[in-house]
Fold:
Amino acid sequence: MMVVMKKGHSQRDLQAVLDHLQEAGLSGHMIVGVERTVIGVIGDVYPELSDELRSYPSVDDTVPISRPYKLASRELKPDDTAVRVGSVEIGSGSTVIIAGQCSVDTPEQMMATAHTVRSAGGHVLRGGAFKPRSSPHSFRGLLDEGLHILAEAGAAVGLPTVSEVMDPRDVETVAEHVDLLQVGARNAQNYFLLDEVGKCNKPVLLKRGMACSVEEWLLCAEYVLARGNKQVILCERGIRTFETGTRYTLDVSSIPLAKRLSHLPVIADPSHGTGRWYLVEPMSLAAVAAGADGLMIEIHPNPERALSDGAQSLTFANFRRLVEHARVVGEAVQRPFARV
Amino acid sequence: MMVVMKKGHSQRDLQAVLDHLQEAGLSGHMIVGVERTVIGVIGDVYPELSDELRSYPSVDDTVPISRPYKLASRELKPDDTAVRVGSVEIGSGSTVIIAGQCSVDTPEQMMATAHTVRSAGGHVLRGGAFKPRSSPHSFRGLLDEGLHILAEAGAAVGLPTVSEVMDPRDVETVAEHVDLLQVGARNAQNYFLLDEVGKCNKPVLLKRGMACSVEEWLLCAEYVLARGNKQVILCERGIRTFETGTRYTLDVSSIPLAKRLSHLPVIADPSHGTGRWYLVEPMSLAAVAAGADGLMIEIHPNPERALSDGAQSLTFANFRRLVEHARVVGEAVQRPFARV
Amino acid sequence: MMVVMKKGHSQRDLQAVLDHLQEAGLSGHMIVGVERTVIGVIGDVYPELSDELRSYPSVDDTVPISRPYKLASRELKPDDTAVRVGSVEIGSGSTVIIAGQCSVDTPEQMMATAHTVRSAGGHVLRGGAFKPRSSPHSFRGLLDEGLHILAEAGAAVGLPTVSEVMDPRDVETVAEHVDLLQVGARNAQNYFLLDEVGKCNKPVLLKRGMACSVEEWLLCAEYVLARGNKQVILCERGIRTFETGTRYTLDVSSIPLAKRLSHLPVIADPSHGTGRWYLVEPMSLAAVAAGADGLMIEIHPNPERALSDGAQSLTFANFRRLVEHARVVGEAVQRPFARV
Amino acid sequence: MMVVMKKGHSQRDLQAVLDHLQEAGLSGHMIVGVERTVIGVIGDVYPELSDELRSYPSVDDTVPISRPYKLASRELKPDDTAVRVGSVEIGSGSTVIIAGQCSVDTPEQMMATAHTVRSAGGHVLRGGAFKPRSSPHSFRGLLDEGLHILAEAGAAVGLPTVSEVMDPRDVETVAEHVDLLQVGARNAQNYFLLDEVGKCNKPVLLKRGMACSVEEWLLCAEYVLARGNKQVILCERGIRTFETGTRYTLDVSSIPLAKRLSHLPVIADPSHGTGRWYLVEPMSLAAVAAGADGLMIEIHPNPERALSDGAQSLTFANFRRLVEHARVVGEAVQRPFARV
Structure:
């Protein structure tokens, strides 16, 4: 960390900062520049240090040098991490398709969806049982019954499954029914939930919070990793910006950036990221071209009757077309589809 | 809700939408304009309808007309709601000062803080026992011990207390120790937690999520209200923007806007909202002038030794000055300090 | 346009709005809903109407139904517009590569750059002569001399050229030297400049302002089109968001969205959009996969000696690799490179 | 500036950076930390250096230490700058009210407005003659005729005037008619216009661009100051965020922040900043309480007939009320109204 002193600070101000560092077992290395004095902090910097130092009136600013995440960092582990979900590996250089319904509804519809995902070439079946809805008056999921329907559909077609968990109390139950636990964007910084999935022996799909920088997203992953669960997949799903023509702004550049900074696999969710069914295919292809390890796509037999998020769900026909196109782009960028 | 049809839609497309509405027990009222046809939906619109209709390729867009929140709306309840916290009333036209440490640390420091809050003229004592920290390697609070220390300090000086709850499993415990339950910005859309505090018989301080629009913030409040707890206080604490000179951007205009749309009290947290101790006073005065029902301020006997967020904590002397100035501004806008 | 009346409005309030519409030569069509009354405005709505109506205290909101841009809209002109720049056509289904130096510097370096663009398979040569720099103390371009150097380099290798114009007084001069006039992001809403290039008989490359929504961007194009110049190419170059890991956030989804709403060609500038040389290739491939009509790339013989924006410039070797990869992705999405 | 090297860089990489600095007449001072090596740059850093160094693959990042603006900085000039407009001084500790019509329309209406501004206690009369409008089909101002009408109205009531200039070619003309030249938000980074007003001997009101950070806003001021014009007033008018309940987000915290960093006066424009007439008063009071040197308010005799921005214009009665309340808040924070 660098500590930038204000212009016109006194020798006593400087000493106070150096004493603070020394008490903390660190040492300070001064650089006297033309305009300012900067203190380089040497030693094992702890997260609170920045706030402590910035509360000194003579300190103008502090500048972090080391990254705040360690376990998620490629500096610690230079080679890619691959996460196995059922029989599929995510993060080992191929493209993986996760698809299914935003909300599980009837067993018949879920089964039709599962058959479509399988026959189109998809790898993992998704289905929401617990739904985060911005209105308390919206449908909030079939809960346990939904998990059963999803598990049965997955088993019937031989695909592993993924579903969201929202409450630390439900982690165990959801983990019993699915192969991959999803933590949603609204819970990306729900640290007690992250702790709980971190103690679990199931891979975790961690969506980026819509107000999280890439660095903060990696810190969310760090929570899970720090608890011992090393099977984390990152998922970009759109950030909050001023643009209203899309529901969120899918930050495609976060995919190569996160992969550069971290060894964890990164996938994209263009369905939530755009909120518009007609943008899902072009943004899927964009994500694959940018280096994503996979896609997460919402489909529904009858989008106009879906219990949630119909506007961003693809029909089966549109989904099949998307998969064919994603396959071609994947091959063009040397990321062929994973084998099932 | 208004349904905007695409140009060049067919009669059959139109009929499909009208049929959809009829099946849902609603009726459609057509307006054929110069450029487009619009269908006004009459009846009790449900939250999923918009997504269902936008999945029709012939539908260009849907436009909500009614507000998605009901219980939080001033249309339902035109007069202000006042929430009692201990002996203080928030939302009845006066200015209330909530102050204390971001994190509870030693009993001695907490007691010194409590005395300062009381003697300066503050109304509620805050202290964090469970801390949401972006890094898993940061100090995360004294947990139950912190709640005890806070409760004792509050009792000693005769001030009600507030502390954050982050895990649905902790709601009962925290509610036993404090007078006001805080739901933090990172949990503003943690719906299971909102459900839990909604079932509780304690007032709730609901911070705005950093990516929540005012409408979405009111929907978060709706969750708590819908569970039966009518004692909700809203707290603006800064939104995420591109500006990096402050930690967040305190959206002062959200205060009069939320008060116009809702009957709930609205306070401001300029400490987290700015992240800079030297901006806390001017932004406190701004919030009071804009009509806030109160302020939430971080102070610490030794900001440079605080266990969290020292950079935004005020010294006791700066806090006393702020309270004096806030009192004068409160009087200027006819919002004198609440009586203790 | 829809006019949403406040709850509890009087008959007189309603009449005032209807009278206002009638005076403006429009008619109003009322829909009385369960919660609110809405007036659909029939006729040729003018841009000021919304503000006029929202100044009535009894009006809660107005909702636009027609799009504010006409000439740029695909509703007016359903088929794609192709813009010819020299011998290359942009917008007719192929991928076009525009590349060159952010700033023109020496004739030797510019010539080396031109040869590289040509031999790698690029189509248009760029070079900045007038540079918008955020600091007045930065290098601001070689001005006229730069235009000459650029024109000579282009002529030597047989490539058309593009350069930015920033001042309405310079439009004529720049237009004499280059084949494509660029309007930069900081001038996207400089309406006098847009007027001036709109009166010019040269194609215009219009960058999206970093705070412009897609709708506002199309309105910027509308300015140029309204003056008679139909040769407009849109260029996405990143919007301002809270993310600091990249310089801007390249809004890839704006490419398919703009192409859906408008008939104009859309290209992407991943160099400015990311500000990081190591993200330029993945984001170039993403843009092509999402349907961009072309790319605009910064290269430099010695990025570390470039007079501006070295951090986002590619070396010649990296550029050649990018072009090869973009060619493959272009073919995968049925957008082969344009013939030179 | 600090240069952060990547982990695992070689000695040769380090030497290349040091050589680069030496060639530039600077020196490097190394700090070898536990995790990384950092080079402190000593000497007079130039703006391009950061980009140059970040183009070295072995450089992880560069961190500015000195502020990029000099003339605008309080470090160069610690005491407040006061700018005289007609007989009023802005920036010398009092509160100044600038008010008038967004667009000049008829002489009668402008005169009525002028009388209201004067009698209510306002100090400067505004009126737009050249209007930046997002649609080319909107009313764009009365141009020269508008300047005449404004000047006459100002003279009639004895108030100085302010109007926007948008085209470098118009600076001289506008400067002949008004006492204060306004540069609007959309032109905040129109560097040729800034150059032109910088060469002019009239005070300049510089609005913050809606995508400009406070630092970039001060760099815009630096352009004007660098040309020799020292009479710059900054004006916060709202930034672009995801919130749609207001037109922009008035960043009140930028007022005390800009005043801390710079010696220039700072005023606020809550009319454009909120776009909602009912938020103008509370946000005016907030700005004054936060330390603004003045307010810029839109009023109109008949907001529903205004030629632009009616939705944010106050009626005369509402304006008078606002001025009375602003006066009281100004006195509460020791910023009484300026004497006329």
